[in-house]
Specification:
Elements lengths: L1 E5 L10 H10 L4 E6 L2 H13 L3 E5 L11 H10 L5 E10 L7 H18 L3 E6 L2 H10 L7 E3 L6 H9 L2 E5 L9 H9 L5 E3 L21 H12 L3 H16 L4
Parallel strand pairs: 1-2, 2-3, 3-4, 4-5, 5-6, 6-7, 7-8
Protein name: TatD family hydrolase
Keywords: Hydrolase, Metal-binding
Organism: Fictibacillus fluitans
Length: 255
Amino acid sequence: MFDTHAHLNAIQFEEDLEDVIQRALDEGISHIVVVGFDQPTIKGALKLADTYDFIYAAVGWHPVDAVDMTPEDLQWIEELADHPKVVAIGEMGLDYHWDKSPKDVQKRVFRQQIQLAKKVRLPIIIHNRDATQDVVDILREEGAEEVGGIMHCYSGSLEVAKECMDMNFYISFGGPVTFKNAKKPKEVAKEIPIDRLLIETDCPYLSPHPLRGKRNEPSYVKYVAEAIAELREMPLEALVKKTTENAKRLYQISD
């Protein structure tokens, strides 16, 4: 299994990180992408990628913290794109739930990172909260289909998922697809083409059922895979094989 979006660089894992990683290996996790979204978490993601063969890094700037990003930070992210274990730029996007960063600042930082990703030719990881139309519009206006990427922890409609897939994006599902009341993610996970489907944890957040409320971790991605396999009425092994192939293709990982 391939956990395409994890935050093992979060403080929630400081006490028992090695145990968490061992549990992931024991559960058959073959690859993890650890996502950095500000200076400390980017450094943490790179340290983990340098330490563990099966861990890779994504580097970007979270929209909630867009107001903190300096031109020097953007330059640093561009330089890090040359690191052999950096496989994507992100997470980036728009978040209108929190108001720390004004919308115009979020949009500017989002556009800058898409332009950077096109320059370094890496896919992008999209964070969208309460901002779907603006996210889709900016992806289209900036020509993001040139690099493609992931709509991370997708919770939108099937129609918007189709728009994103038309722009060369994969649709990734995490813990919420296992929740009983999650009608939209279940519908999309069931209906989209399997060659555009990914799984993730977004740990330590969004633990799947039956572990809601507990700290999430990569080994729990199996609950996401099981839920989607059941929705699609296909064998778990086949879903795991296909989603792993999809992630390796997107992230250009050959092993």
